[in-house]
Design brief:
Blueprint: E1 3-4, E2 9-10, H1 20-29, H2 38-44, H3 51-63, E3 67-72, E4 75-80, H4 84-97, H5 102-111, H6 115-132
Length: about 130
């Protein structure tokens, strides 16, 4: 077991936050150069993740619509479709889609926003309305 020599305590690996690994995979896939294999992604993430873990993350991102894949021989090449903001938006939409009273959920969400975030949301909605009038 790994030991922290300065403190004499067990050093355990840091647990990643929810969605952190997905965001890291997306960031790697968004690098210039086109579609990438899971092995390439694994190498760019530092190699401490198992290949099967990388495949699982890519498969989940594919199911969420955040990445696309093309058959390449017996495996796939993966391409990012969404960025981190897009991934967060997909998560928010999935939560909203799982609720029966969308109006109540949206109303609760908006009333919980900070004044700055509420103003930003109003500006974005107004901008979208103006673009729709063209």
């Amino acid at each position: 077991m790994a030991r922290n020599t300065r403190e004499g305590q067990d050093a355990s690996p840091r647990r990643r936050g929810q969605g952190e690994l997905e965001a890291q995979v997306l960031a790697v896939l968004r690098r210039p150069g086109g579609a990438r294999t899971a092995g390439w992604v694994q190498e760019r993430l530092g190699g401490d993740l198992a290949y099967t873990t990388v495949i699982t993350i890519l498969t989940r991102l594919h199911a969420k619509g955040a990445v696309s894949r093309e058959r390449a021989g017996r495996s796939f090449e993966w391409t990012a479709v969404a960025d981190e903001a897009g991934l967060a938006a997909l998560r928010m939409r999935r939560v909203l889609d799982g609720e029966t009273d969308r109006e109540a959920v949206l109303a609760s969400f908006v009333t919980g926003l900070s004044p700055d975030d509420e103003r930003l949301l109003r500006d974005l909605l107004a901008q979208d309305s103006e673009e729709g009038e063209d």
